[in-house]
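ESCALATION

Customer reports they have been waiting on this structure for their group meeting. Please prioritize. Original submission:
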Amino acid sequence: MEKIKICEARRDDLEHLLELNQSNLPHVGSITQSEMEYLHRQAIYFPVAEFNGQTAGFLIAFDPEADYASLNFLWFKKRYPNFVYIDRIVISAEARRKGIANTLYRDLEHFAAERQIPIMACEYNLRPKNDVSRQFHQRYGFSEVGIQETEIGKKTVSLQIKPVVPLRSSSLNGVVE
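Update from on-call: job pushed to the front of the queue and completed.
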């Protein structure tokens, strides 16, 4: 049986995760090893997904307290006081279409709900076009709140938010309301 396991990224994982990141250009931004280490230190949420015992992907997210100079992150920081920003999600080519991205997003949403963070924020490329990401985010319930050019006009992104679904409380008899 195929199984997805989510665990927190460790410093020892970063070199391999960087290779995975770089294999997914231009859909995610290119970074160096020292930048990957910096993102790891700044992230509020940085899980690794394993699929059948192999690294299948990762997600990096920040809260507004992060010291992060990304134009897209700063766009959200200027407009929303409390959010979790998905900087990047990377899934290996062989692990795509197996529910891993959805599992990582659900786990992040649960993480945000536990901390009473009301909004998940992200962007995806309009130019160069990333229809797979657009379709995924639409299905997951994100909606566009802005458009921004980045990389000196080389990219155009759709800025997206999704309200976090609050955790359901349990009643005394153990039935979830």
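Sent to customer with the following note: The first strand starts at residue 4 and ends at 8.
Escalation resolved.
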